[in-house]
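Annotated sample (chain length 154).
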Amino acid sequence: RGQEILIGAIYDVNRDELFWAEKGKGAFLNNKRISVSPIDDIKKSMLVTGFYYNRGDEMLKNLECIKRFFLKHVTGIRQFGAAALDLSYVACGRFTGFWEFNLSPWDFAAGKIIIEEAGGIITRKGGEAVNPVESSFIVASNGKIHSQMLEVLK
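Output written by the structure step:
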């Protein structure tokens, strides 16, 4: 409704998992309520990211971000190739945080409400609110490590 997301759904056909959320009613994996990871230390966190299809400057910037996260001694970083699923995996606690450059609204709009309804947070790189109708550099987390992520991504 306008720029407010009221409902979102992401289906992982390979695992037969439907992630969905409705504003004010929680987030679910199939029919089970989900919540973000309780981890509050970036050093104990498993992160996930994606690579923008541009293999030039954007890829080099993301590789630099990966290096900075590893210097913070995160547990690990994974890359799967579907931002929507990455956001769903943060929402259900499989990962603690996510970032990616230049996502289009269709890449993150459903994930935004799923993350928020699961207790997490999603912002732009500087911590600003995400506008679901504009492309953006997205940072999502369980909320507990969000400021730590933003500091690394400066």
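Annotation: The mean pLDDT is 93.
Annotation: The first helix runs from residue 57 to 71.
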